[in-house]
Structure to design on (129 residues):
C-alpha cells in the first residue's frame, strides 16, 4: 500500500498516539453536521440559513449528494418566504432551475433595494465560487 509523506504534527498528544490532524477549511460544526447526515445519526438543526449554506457549500465541495438532497428538500423551502433572495442565489449556484424560479417568484413581492434585504444581497455574493 502506498503511503503519503507526513509533515510534522503540532498536536503532541495526537502524535504520541500515532494520529495526525488534517487541517480543513470548514468549521467543525459544518463538518459535524455533514457527517451526522451521511452516517444517519441525526439531522442537524436547519434553522439558520448561513449554517445551511455553509454545509451546502462543503457538501458540494466534497461531492456529497445525500446532504445536498437533504438541504434542497428540507431546508430551502423553509427559507423561501423569509430569505427568497438567498434561496434564489443558492438555487442558481447549484443549477436548480425550478427552485430558482420559485424563489424569483417570491422576490416579486419585495422591494429588493430596501435596507432590510441588503444583508441577503451581500450574503448571496459572498458564497460565489
Amino acid at each position: 500500500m502506498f503511503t503519503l509523506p507526513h509533515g510534522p504534527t503540532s498536536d503532541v498528544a495526537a502524535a504520541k498516539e500515532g494520529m495526525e490532524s488534517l487541517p480543513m477549511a470548514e468549521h467543525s460544526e459544518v463538518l459535524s453536521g455533514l457527517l451526522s447526515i451521511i452516517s444517519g445519526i441525526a439531522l442537524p438543526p436547519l434553522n439558520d440559513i448561513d449554517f445551511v449554506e455553509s454545509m451546502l457549500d462543503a457538501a458540494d465541495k466534497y461531492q456529497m449528494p445525500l446532504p445536498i438532497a437533504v438541504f434542497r428538500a428540507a431546508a430551502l423551502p423553509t427559507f423561501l418566504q423569509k430569505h427568497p433572495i438567498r434561496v434564489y442565489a443558492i438555487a442558481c449556484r447549484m443549477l436548480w432551475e425550478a427552485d430558482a424560479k420559485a424563489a424569483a417568484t417570491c422576490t416579486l413581492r419585495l422591494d429588493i433595494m430596501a435596507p432590510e434585504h441588503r444583508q441577503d444581497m451581500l450574503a448571496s455574493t459572498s458564497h460565489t465560487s
